[in-house]
Amino acid sequence: MRLRQLHLLAFGPFTDRVLDFGRGERQLFIVHGPNEAGKSSALRALSDLRFGIPAQSPDKFIHDYADMRIGGVFADGQGREASVMRRKKLRGSLSLHDFQGSETQVGPVVPPELEALLTGGLTRKDYLAMFSLDHQGLRDGGRALSAGEGEVGAALFEASAGVRSVPALMAKLDEQARQHYAPRAQKPSINQALAAFSEQQDTYKKAVTKPAVWVDLQRQCEASRAELERLQQALAEARVRGALLAELRVVGPLMDKLQAARRAAEALSAVPLLAPTATTERVSAETSRAQAKAQLQTLGEEIRSAQDAIANLPSDPRVLELAPAISRLAAAAEGIDAAEQEARLLAQQLNAERAEWEQFAARMDVTPHAEELVSLVPSATEQVWI
Length: 386
Description:
The protein is of the alpha+beta class. The protein contains 13 helices and 5 strands. It has helices at 39-51, 112-119, 124-131, 135-146, 151-161, 166-180, 189-207, 211-267, 278-312, 317-321, 323-364, 370-376, 380-385; strands at residues 2-11, 14-20, 69-75, 81-87, 94-96.
């Protein structure tokens, strides 16, 4: 069965790590990583998932034996999937599992026919030799083939590697190896690399510092570090002082204005404070003052005009003789105006009384003598002058 997902739930250095190999038609997947990343543990997980976790597993890194778990999703030739999980147990360690559900829930034990499909009818040894070769296995198989040992191993290696003749392959590999390296040769690439390495090693030895020189350099380094710290501290203090001076340079003119304002305020300390409405009153007073000045100027012009008119009047002795009478007439003129006003009021009253008399006479039925009675009433002009 084809492995589609490898769930490293608690195995080796892994916890809840999933390797997804997809559901497409790809035939080759490369899993890479730095040293000690867990590539060998992942390779052992492939075989332990199919055949069981060994009693003395080398993948007990961070998880106890009782907690070790591996899972996988497999597909058969018709594309039907089966999800299983392997625990470290003597019996019933492989069970069906739903990776979308709870991790603690254990499914039923995998039936024998499904387990047979997972192993393909092979033993762990045959599976490792054919489908789970690691670096050490390749080196051991190469040494056995070089020594002409292990015919069955060679046959398995030929089958797993897809080659027809191991000796022919070995001869071809030897020929290729001689192109890269040959004893006492100079042109092969590995020989040239070894010569370059030797030269670089000599250069390295010459560049290695002696202990005494190293101690002296270390002492100089410490002294330089201390001097650097001192200079950094001095630089920090200088920056703080520079920032302060920059602020003072900006604030200086303002401080001068503040001092001048304080001196001016002290000089005016004896001056009483004005009321809040002083500004409005001052503006009103200035407006009234301007209006008074304008009126004064106008009156001055009128006075000067009247004086000029008086100065230009011709003198008449007869008029001057009548000055007292004229003064009396001028004084009486004011009384005449008042008398005319009073006469008008009396005429209004007379008219009102005449109307009242007429109404009274009508009630008394003295109509034949009404005109005679009315004629006896004095006129308004006569009443005024009387």
